Request: fold
Amino acid sequence: MATTTGIGWDVHPLVPDRPLVLGGVRIPSPLGLAGHSDADVLTHAVIDALLGAAGLGDIGELFPDTEERWRGADSIGLLREVRPLVLASGHEIVHVDATVLLERPKLLPHKEAMRENLAGALELAVVHVNVKATRGEGMGFVGRVEGGAALAIATLETR
Ligand code: MG
Reply:
């Protein structure tokens, strides 16, 4: 048995008149993340971390943003599709940790729901999925409220 890890990183611009969806949770906000899918930056980072750990490429190869069928896609649904691919590659999903970088709104009231959604899609106990949030402290694209980003790391074990 071997342990593998994968990293995921994603960024989407913040714009008016878009819902803010993070970890499948719709969060009240005057600005939302723009993208071809629902632009759920957290779930996208988690997907890339899982694909990385399993040696399966990246989210752009699996769900190209040039394809009409992924327009407005529910990213938690995409994550649910990734799980069997990871299992079929001979891996068990052990743990996922992630950090969302967003200046506002405060994510603390929503973190537990995000965690539950991600864990649910991966059929993992909530204890094996962690979601953290941090701000840009006024610096860079996060701090200037131009966009949101997320980092994730996945740990898998080979079967
Ligand atoms: Mg993305």
